[in-house]
Amino acid sequence: MRQIPSQRGAALLLLVAVLGLGAASLLIGAFGRDTGEAARQQRTLATLAQARDALLGFAVTHGRLPRPAASALDGHERAADCASDADCSGFLPWVTLGVAGSDAWGKLLRYSVTPQMSRAPIISFSAVANRVVLARDGSGAFAYVAGQDLCDVSAQCLPAVLFSQGKEHFGTTASGVAQRNTARGNIDEASNDHASRSFIFRPASANDALPGGAFDDMFTWITLPALYQRMRAARNLP
Fold first, then answer.
1. Closest by alpha carbon to 145, among 156, 132, 159?
2. Distance (Å, rounded) from C-alpha 45 to C-alpha 223?
3. What is the spatial distance between Cα 59 and Cα 44, in angstroms, rounded to a whole number?
4. Which of 97, 131, 137, 158 has the fewest Cβ atoms nearer than 10 Å?
5. Per-residue pLDDT of the chain in tens (238 residues, 90 and over written 9)
6. Which helix (H) or strand (E) holds 60?
7. Contact by Cβ (8 Å): 207, 185
8. Rounded to whole angstroms, how far apart are CA atoms 108 and 44?
9. 3-state percent helix, strand, coil for the chain, nearest multiple of 5
10. Are strands 198-200 and 142-146 parallel, antiparallel or unpaired?
11. How far apart are CA 196 and CA 115, in angstroms?
12. Which of 160, 149, 154 is closest to 125 using CA atoms?
């Protein structure tokens, strides 16, 4: 007997529901295996979000973004202006911002800011934000998530990038101890550990056979429109 359209539709809905339940079971199983670890990831994401808001708040008050922390043990922003991209890459200045400086694994949050964006006043029609974030496509080749090859006034990149180095490999504890990298082939994490302008953002994976190796860095960043919108609302942008 030929199935009428309404029956076919009902069958399709049932199939979608079954597939959805299967996918949900897989997700529950994946997170259920280590609910403590999932909770730490969520706390770290919340800490990153709070830090991002604090950076924007600082810009509203001071007319610029802060420089990185003076050191792993001193969370005040460094006193001297950044002479280079490397000078403007380090740890989040958590004391200056009044926020937590560490992720849920006790590692200091990393922070990199465009030098021009760390000096007041920021001249919006000429200042160039130059931080970029890349990801890997299905073949392992890099593609831009934010920014592009050339950052200029007509094609801006990011003012600042903020990240946690995750549970495994690399990172510095709140007591100033650098964590040894015990993995092999995690070149994307190694790149982020030394980066001053270009950062790599990927889904977390313990598979060291993937292009770029194992990865668990967690990112957020500030876009130029978001920064300028907050500063203009406060009448703090020339």
1. 132
2. 18
3. 23
4. 137
5. 444 444 444 443 333 333 333 433 333 344 445 688 899 999 999 999 999 999 999 999 999 999 999 999 999 999 999 999 999 999 999 999 999 999 999 999 999 999 999 999 999 999 999 999 999 998 999 999 999 999 999 999 999 999 999 999 899 999 999 998 988 899 999 999 999 999 999 999 999 999 999 999 999 999 999 999 999 999 999 8
6. helix 35-62
7. no
8. 11
9. 35, 20, 45
10. unpaired
11. 11
12. 154
Residues 6 or more apart from 89 whose CB is under 8 A from it? 68, 110, 111, 112, 113, 195, 196, 197
For 173-194, the DSSP string reads: BTTSPBPPP--SS-HHHHHHHH
93, 102, 106, 214, 231 from 63: Cα distances, Å: 16, 26, 31, 39, 7
> Do residues 131 and 147 make contact, with C-beta atoms less than 8 angstroms apart?
yes
